[in-house]
Amino acid sequence: MGTTQLETVPEPKYWHLKTVLSEALDSEFAVGEILPNERELAARFGVARATLRQALEQLELEGRLQRRRGVGTTVAPPRVGVAVGEAEDAWPGAATDSWQAVDCQETAPPAAVARLLGTAAGQAVHTVRRIRRTHGQPVAAELLYVPGSSVPGLAAIDAAPGAARARTVLRELQRLGLEGQDRAVELGSARAEDAKQLDRLPGAPVLLVTTRYFAEGGTAAVAVATYRADTCRLTFGESGVQLLAAG
Fold this sequence. Notes:
The chain is 25% helix and 35% strand. It has 247 residues and is α+β, with helices and mostly antiparallel strands. The strands form 3 sheets. It has a 6-stranded antiparallel β-sheet with strand order 4-5-6-9-8-7. A 3-stranded antiparallel β-sheet has the order 3-11-10, with no helix packed on it. Helix 2 packs across helix 3. It has helices at residues 13-28, 38-45, 49-61, 111-117, 163-173, 192-197, and strands spanning 65-68, 72-75, 79-82, 99-107, 125-134, 137-146, 180-189, 205-215, 218-228, 232-237, 240-246. The longest helix has 16 residues, at 13-28.
């Protein structure tokens, strides 16, 4: 990567640096290649490390770079599609579902989720943890909150903890007639546990997709999926909103 001194430009200095770095990524680096460290990059471009970090963070948000534990900053692979639109309009765990059940515990959901479920604050619900992979790489982690009233038959079933119990909860949930879904998407920061599952650093930018599942005239379950914002973007088409994620 050649040395480029930045001149006075109308846009912020980090934004101009981002453009220069993006051009270098296209011409000088391969997918998966590790970038030089921040000190070296800042010296080559004649900028403060704070300015460099802003440019790198922006490129990470745009999906050009990935910051990986114990590796450093690498060039991100191209994006591939991961559907989250109406084509996926089915109960979690259905035959067309691309999520993998990991664990299930009884925990109190966050206050915002409890309000969506209509449960009392602090009341424990079945919390199913799932992971989604594309081309073998984790692209999203999900917590599915299911109140006991949605799976009354579960009390009579002796399911082992972990993935086996998670699958049992999903099967019982599918006994209800799904009446519809709604989704909300917002930008957030990765919690420590989600970051570990997604091979990200805690606090890394993520897209939070909250889905409510309706049955019997009310909310039967709520899922909060954490997608890697460094490799995911929203698209709009005839089928509604989709997320695109890198494989």
